[in-house]
Design goal:
heterodimer, A: about 260 residues, alpha/beta, 6-stranded mixed sheet, 4-stranded antiparallel sheet, 12 strands, about 35% helix, B: about 250 residues, mainly alpha, MetI-like fold, two-stranded antiparallel sheet, 2 strands, elongated
Chain lengths: ~260, ~250
């Protein structure tokens, strides 16, 4: 595969806690290609959320590299094309990586519309009218245009998560990171959120999804990573992972969840 | 004992109360403004993660080095400040500011609004602000820390800077949560400003003492002063309660 297809390269990523007593990430390397829908599975405490949160540096890795747009964003500086040393501006990179959290993290003191338009207006300098039109179009896409003036507390969990997704999309990210997006939802609301995610995948959005929804991994993912104890133990197509698992930890895990 | 004659005598000096009221309000308002700004700075200082020696922290380093690596001078300075100002009497602080800190400083002597002696009020404002800043900073810090970390993460993941996150996401929610505590502190400032009569600020308590000297009545002017203070503090807490209701729109279903 050509290098230009690689959107994010993770090289030998390590995250230690307690002076190295706990290895949340133990030498993980993986390439995320443009258009990938990469699903990360594994038992709890396996480091899958830590890996995801490291990608936009919400978690600062102990060691290793994350190359995004040719820049190692884990370092403080990089050398630009003219050979000069420049500061890495993490805010710039985060704009291009949308993130959806397990607990939605909508801003409770702002209306749905304000939740969506705040970052585009303040960060990208978009004018308010343009931002609002864009927000309304996105709300329509997820069937929530009538809730624009509501506050987050007035919405159901499924609605909140759909808003969280379109809020991230307002920034037109190149990749969307999902951190267990359906784990905090009542079972009957999981479907509506997965439906929005499937549609995103169909539109060609690059996605990294940490989830316990094996059905989603199988149906929508084109690559599945299996992690345990901070290590990336196995990766492959959904077919390979679910039908012919090789590592005994993966076989154990699948036996429990399927 | 109170007497009608005493009230009559006290009311004949009502102008002094009027001037005292204006002085008290000005003194408190300036204290609130400067105290709050100081408190915000102190709160942010206490929460800073500036650790100039963090590079010392390596796996396998000793305990002393570990403690040293966590050394945060900015937070330490703010910490000491808050502890000192909360552990000493306001009257002592006021006298230190007036008799020591500003002893060699000759402030311009003129009358603000034609009644307030500027050179006397400034030491009062400084002492009260320094004191209330220490208390308010603790309130603000607890408010900021009560906001779920997910809020910051969400804002940062959208590419917002640390300062924008503070300004648009964390502080508005934090201030809403701590509004009752802030109201308390504002009311306290109004009441504690009465201590400034000891350095010659002509506020409400100063009026009481002037009237006492002139008429030999003390109970009646004190009752009037109590009413004046109540008329200031009661509306203040009511106004803040109104803003509290307005800001809690996001809480209602």
């Amino acid at each position: 595969m050509a290098t230009s297809d690689k959107l994010i390269q993770v090289k030998n990523l390590k995250k230690y806690y307690n002076k190295g007593a706990l290895h949340a990430l133990d030498d993980v390397s993986v390439d995320i290609n443009r258009g990938d829908v990469m699903v990360v599975i594994g038992p709890s405490g396996s480091g899958k959320s830590t890996l995801l949160r490291s990608l936009n540096l919400l978690e600062v890795p102990t060691d290793g590299e994350i190359i995004f747009h040719g820049i190692d964003i884990t370092k403080k500086t990089f050398t630009n094309k003219e050979g000069k040393t420049e500061k890495v501006n993490i805010n710039l990179h985060r704009q291009k990586m949308g993130m959806v959290f397990q607990h939605f993290n909508l801003f409770p003191h702002k209306t749905i519309l304000d939740n969506m338009t705040l970052a585009p207006i303040k960060v990208l300098g978009m004018d308010q009218k343009e931002a609002e039109e864009k927000a309304m179009a996105l709300l329509k896409r997820v069937g929530l245009e009538d809730r624009a003036g509501a506050y987050p507390i007035q919405l159901s969990g499924g609605q909140k998560q759909r808003i969280a997704i379109v809020r991230a999309l307002m920034m037109e990210p190149e990749v969307m990171l999902f951190d267990e997006p359906t784990s905090a939802l009542d079972p009957e609301m999981v479907g509506e959120v997965l439906e929005v995610m499937k549609e995103l995948a169909r539109d060609g959005m690059t996605m990294v999804v940490v989830t316990h929804e094996m059905g989603f991994a199988r149906e929508v993912g084109n690559r599945v990573l299996f992690m345990a104890d901070g290590q990336l133990l196995e990766q492959g197509t959904p077919e390979e992972i679910f039908s012919t698992p090789k590592h005994h930890r993966l076989q154990d895990f699948l036996a429990k969840v399927l | 004992m109170l007497s009608a004659k005493g009230f009559e005598a006290a009311f004949s000096y009502i102008q002094l109360f009027g001037e005292g009221l204006i002085t008290t309000v000005t003194l408190s308002a300036l204290t609130v403004i400067f105290g709050f700004m100081l408190a915000l700075v102190l709160a942010l200082m206490r929460m800073s993660n500036f650790r100039p020696l963090h590079f010392l922290d390596k796996p396998g380093c000793g305990r002393v080095v570990k403690v040293l690596s966590k050394f945060n001078p900015i937070s330490l300075v703010a910490n000491i400040y808050v502890e000192v100002f909360r552990a000493t009497p306001l009257l002592v602080q006021l006298f230190i500011v007036y008799y020591i800190l500003l002893a060699g400083v000759s402030l311009p002597a003129f009358k603000l609004f034609g009644i307030i002696r500027f050179e006397r009020m400034i030491p009062g404002v400084i002492a009260l602000s320094l004191n209330s800043g220490a208390y308010l900073s603790e309130i603000i810090r607890s408010g900021i820390q009560s906001i779920d970390g997910g809020q910051t993460e969400a804002a940062r993941s959208l590419g917002m800077t640390q300062w924008h996150t503070m300004q648009y996401i964390v502080l508005p929610q934090a201030i809403k949560n701590i509004l009752p505590a802030i109201a308390n502190e504002f009311v306290t400032i109004i009441k504690e400003s009465s201590i400034c009569w000891t350095i010659g600020v002509q506020e409400v308590m100063f009026a009481v003492n002037s009237i006492k000297s002139a008429t030999y009545f003390i109970g009646e002017p004190l009752i009037i002063a109590a009413c004046v203070y109540f008329c200031l503090t009661f509306p203040t807490s009511k106004i803040i309660a109104y803003f509290e209701r307005r800001m809690s729109r996001g809480d209602k279903r």
